[in-house]
């Protein structure tokens, strides 16, 4: 049996290092294959100095290949919303009933893609992110990690480990028997 796959979408510049590497390590440790996507496959740079070569460009992602899509935060994350292919892929994930996740500033990308209306979430909340999340129709909590159905959100780097564990848990759940 093939390992279940998780897609992590990161900003080309300024993703938050531990928000990618901590959950990715937890998910890989649980036996999942983790694929990192960005706008291009050119080397991406983390806010704290890490570099990683994305495995795939967002535009080339086949949604059917993944169980879950997680958008990673950091100061560069909001720029992901400027790329139409990111919103298109996120909407495709939702249309296919896939699980989704976002941490720190990344929920703003989901909000701009129209995916948070009526959803209860947590996120890094400041004068930049709050209006975007509120205009996107999100109901905000102050939890470190929050789950609303098939969506997991986390408030920032301090929640990276809990976020990673939540990703493993949501994928490992057995579907209810009809």
Short description:
The protein has 178 residues and is of the alpha/beta class. It has helices at residues 17-29, 84-95, 107-112, 129-135, 160-172, and strands at 5-9, 13-15, 33-38, 44-46, 51-52, 56-57, 68-71, 99-103, 120-121, 139-140, 145-148, 151-154.
Report on this model:
With 178 residues, the protein is α/β, with parallel strands linked by helices. It has five helices and twelve strands. It has a seven-stranded mixed beta sheet with strand order 6-3-1-7-8-12-11, with helices on both faces. Strands 2-4-5 form a three-stranded mixed beta sheet.
**Count of structural domains:** 1
Instruction: Give the C-level CATH assignment.
Output: Alpha Beta
Number of strands: 12
Summed over residues and divided by their number, the pLDDT gives a mean of 96
CATH homolog superfamily: Class I glutamine amidotransferase (GATase) domain
How many helices in DSSP terms?
5
Shape: globular
Cα-atom Rg, whole angstroms? 15 Å
CATH topology: Rossmann fold
**Sheet with the most strands?**
7 strands, mixed
Strand content: 15-25%
């Amino acid at each position: 049996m093939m390992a279940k796959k998780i897609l992590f979408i990161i900003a080309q510049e300024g993703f938050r290092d531990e928000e990618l590497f901590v959950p990715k390590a937890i998910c890989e440790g649980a036996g999942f294959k983790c694929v990192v996507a960005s706008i291009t496959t050119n080397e991406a740079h983390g806010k704290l100095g890490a570099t990683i070569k994305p495995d795939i460009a967002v535009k080339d992602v086949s949604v059917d290949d993944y169980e879950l899509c997680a958008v990673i935060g950091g100061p560069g994350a909001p720029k992901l919303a400027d790329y139409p292919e990111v919103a298109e892929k996120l909407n495709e994930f939702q249309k296919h009933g896939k699980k989704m996740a976002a941490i720190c500033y990344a929920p703003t990308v989901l909000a701009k893609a129209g995916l948070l209306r009526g959803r209860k979430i947590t996120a890094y909340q400041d004068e930049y992110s709050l209006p975007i999340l509120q205009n996107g129709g999100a109901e905000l909590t102050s939890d470190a990690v929050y789950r609303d159905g098939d969506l997991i959100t986390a408030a920032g780097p301090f929640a990276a480990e809990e976020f990673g564990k939540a990703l493993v848990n949501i994928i490992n759940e057995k579907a209810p028997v009809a």
